[in-house]
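Deliverable D2.4 — example input (structure tokens):
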């Protein structure tokens, strides 16, 4: 039985770690977490916010996926979208998922990321 997603792995080209750190830590506000030494030797970076982890590994013949992406739930999606836009990250709003506000963005190496927030759901005893 699967009980949770432990992490999502994305790929990136060799030598892109500083760009990734600037985006995932600086723009998204995640915290870089240390990789085990044997894995750190391969390059890449790991990031966390709360219980969510994104691992970005180095791939020699990297090509970003056109459709594949992690879906990251956020609180205050309007503010979060404005934060990304203020940092120069693309923000592409999409209204096609009922019950959610969402947008897509791309990291500096072209990985597609989906950010979403449920709307109109009853949560914690109040309407959101």
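Example output (designed residues):
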């Amino acid at each position: 039985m699967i009980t949770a997603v432990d992490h999502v792995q994305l790929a990136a080209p060799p030598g892109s770690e500083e760009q990734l750190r600037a985006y995932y830590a600086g723009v998204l506000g995640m915290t870089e977490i240390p990789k085990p030494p044997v894995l750190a030797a391969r390059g890449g970076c790991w990031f966390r916010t709360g219980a969510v982890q994104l691992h970005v590994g180095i791939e020699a013949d990297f090509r970003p996926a056109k459709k594949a992406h992690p879906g990251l739930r956020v609180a205050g999606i309007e503010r979060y979208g404005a934060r990304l836009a203020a940092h120069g990250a693309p923000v592409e709003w999409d209204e096609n998922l009922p019950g959610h506000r969402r947008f897509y963005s791309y990291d500096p190496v072209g990985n597609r990321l989906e950010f979403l927030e449920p709307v109109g759901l009853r949560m914690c005893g109040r309407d959101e």
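The beta strands are 8-12, 31-33, 45-49, 52-58, 71-73, 92-94, 100-106, 112-118, 122-123, 126-127.
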